[in-house]
Design goal:
It contains 4 helices and no strands. It has 98 residues and is mainly α. The protein has one domain (2-92). Helix 2 (33-62) packs antiparallel against helix 4 (74-92). The longest helix has 30 residues, at 33-62.
Amino acid sequence: MIKYINKLTDLFIKLSLPNVKAKYKRRGIKWTKKIEQKQILRFKSTLPVMFWYGLMWLCAVTLPENVLRVIPSELPVGIFFLLAIWGFNNYFGWIRIK
């Protein structure tokens, strides 16, 4: 599952960086490698949480109510909490796993 999240994140980063570069150019800020790395770090820390919100919305809209009642309420909140901690770790670099 994490492999697919990383693939999707890399795809969104690849598609979003030209827009961010254009935004910096419009504001008159010179695009450097340091700024690019900072933007990539921001994307990698926030996109998994956004994907989770999208998945939860999609489940709420498409799944019937009796299926949603079977899922314990702690499960989506727990997964959201883990993704948030993962995002903070990616951004701040508290724990480095090699």
